Amino acid sequence: MEYLWTILFIFISLALCFAAAIISALIIEAFKRRFNREHVEAPAIFEDPNSLKRVPCPSIFDPAEKYMSLIVPAFNEEYRLHGALEETINYLQQRAAKDKSFSYEVIIIDDGSADGTKGIAFNFVRKYSVEKVRVILLGRNHGKGEAIRKGMLHSRGEILLMLDADGATKITDLEKLENQIHAVAKKETSRDSSIKISDIPITAFGSRAHLEEKALATRKWYRNFLMKGFHLVVLLIAGPGIRDTQCGFKMFTRSAARKLFINIRLKRWCFDVELFYLSKYFGIPMIEVSVNWSEIPGSKLSPRSILNMLWELALMSIGYKIGIWRIFN
C-alpha cells in the first residue's frame, strides 16, 4: 500500500511540475509579445516584375485608394493558387466592367514558400499589373495569421477581405458579406452622409456552421472529437457570439481592420479566435454569414497543428485575461 502511495505521490509531483513548466513558458511567451513587437517586418515595398521598380507599400492608416482589397496568404500553394486566383480575378474584372466605381486590388503574401508559389504569384502581377495584383514576400514561414496581418496593414481598400489560397469558398459569396456590412453601415450613414463606410468599424465572418451536420456525418470520429473540443475551448476563452471562427473568409471595413490588426499577436491557426475576441472588446458589430464551402485536397492541418492551436489559445487566454497584453486603440 505504501508503495502505491509513493508512486501516486511521484506521479502527482511530476504532473504539477509539468503544469508549472507549461504555465511558466506561456507567461514568458506572453511577456515576449507584450508590446506587439514580435511580428516580422518585411520591407515595406512591392516589387514590380515588369519594370523591376519597387513600389512603396501604403499603410492601413492612409486614406483608402480602392474600394476592395483581397488578402490571400499563401504557403507552398503551387498547385492550388493558380486556379483560385484565376477564378477570383475573373470575377473582379467582370464586376469592374459592369460597375465603373468598383476598384480592387489582390495582395498575395508568400509566407516563406519553398515551392513555385512565388513564381505563380508574380506571373499574375505581370499579367494584371502591380496596380491590381501585389506580392509581399515574408522570407520565411511565420504563419497564416502573420501573413494576413501583413497584407491587411499594407492594403488600400475601404473594405478588406481575407480568403484562402485554395479557393474553398466561392468568391461570389463575398457579396453576401459585403451586403451585410453595407446594411449595418447604412444606419450610421443615414444619420451623417459625410461618413464613409471605411470609417465605420464592422466585421463579417464567413461561416460553415450550416454545413456542420453533413460534416459530422462524413468526417472521421476523431476529427469530429477534435472539432467539438476546439469549439468548447474557444467558447470558454472568447465567449459566445460566432459559431464558426475558423472559416478563412472574413471581411472588415478599413476602420475595423485598423483596430484589429495592429493588436493581433497570434501568428498561426488561432488568430481567427483573437480577431473574434478583439472585435468583442472593441464592440465592433460582428455578422456571421453562411457561405458555400468545399473541402479542397492539400490541407495543412496536422496533429502538430492541433497542439499549436491549443498552445495559442492558452497563450491568448493568459495574455489578455491576466492583462499582460495591452490593447491599443
From TrEMBL:
Pathway(s) it belongs to: Protein modification; protein glycosylation
Transmembrane segments: 6-28
UniProt main location, coarse: endoplasmic reticulum
Domain Glycosyltransferase 2-like per the UniProt entry, residue ranges: 69-181
An annotated Gene Ontology molecular function: dolichyl-phosphate beta-glucosyltransferase activity
Catalytic activity annotation: a di-trans,poly-cis-dolichyl phosphate + UDP-alpha-D-glucose = a di-trans,poly-cis-dolichyl beta-D-glucosyl phosphate + UDP
CDD domains hit by this protein: DPG_synthase (cd04188)
Record's keyword annotation contains Hydrolase: no
InterPro entries: DPG_synthase (IPR035518), Glyco_trans_2-like (IPR001173), Nucleotide-diphossugar_trans (IPR029044)
Signal peptide range: none
Keyword presence, Coiled coil: no
Subcellular location: Endoplasmic reticulum membrane
Enzyme Commission number: 2.4.1.117
Membrane topology, from the record: Single-pass membrane protein
Annotated keywords: Endoplasmic reticulum, Glycosyltransferase, Membrane, Signal-anchor, Transferase, Transmembrane, Transmembrane helix
Protein name: dolichyl-phosphate beta-glucosyltransferase
Lineage: Eukaryota, Viridiplantae, Streptophyta, Embryophyta, Tracheophyta
Gene: LOC103498152
